[in-house]
Amino acid sequence: MAKNDGSGGCGDGDGDGGDYDIGYGKPPMHSRWKPGQSGNPRGPKKGSRGLKTDLHNALEARQWVRIKGKVVKGTTQELALYTLATRAASGDIRAIKQLVDVTLLVFGPEDRGRERNILPKQDQELLERLFEEMSSEKEEDTGEDQANQPEDPQSGSNGDDEDGETRDEA
User: What are the extents of the domains in the chain?
Assistant: First the structure.
């Protein structure tokens, strides 16, 4: 690997006397990008498309496929979802998981894009009372369980001996 000794022979020609390696991944100073300088100053070619555009075009392309002897026409997106739903309906576990994931991603956990079902006020009040009763019964059950538990004679109440001295348990 060549070193720049500032003599001008192998260096950057600036004559600043810098001592740095020149080699793979370390080009001479005069050929390095300047801060803020673009590697492609003219930009992308006119009319070039991005990944989103290509994906959109591929999914919107109209096609036809033969499924069980029947010709099915539609966009690539429709046919892919149709195939996924068909595989899921036939019991393919991976297809079921993928279909559920896509459905949740698109529609969310609500009822597949329909308006949210709202309970009538009377039913909502009934459910709230039921939840309150259930939570109060649960609190009573846990309170009684703690009160009825016998104290463990081995552990002692606070680690003191019968004489009032603290025991060291190792």
Answer: 75-107
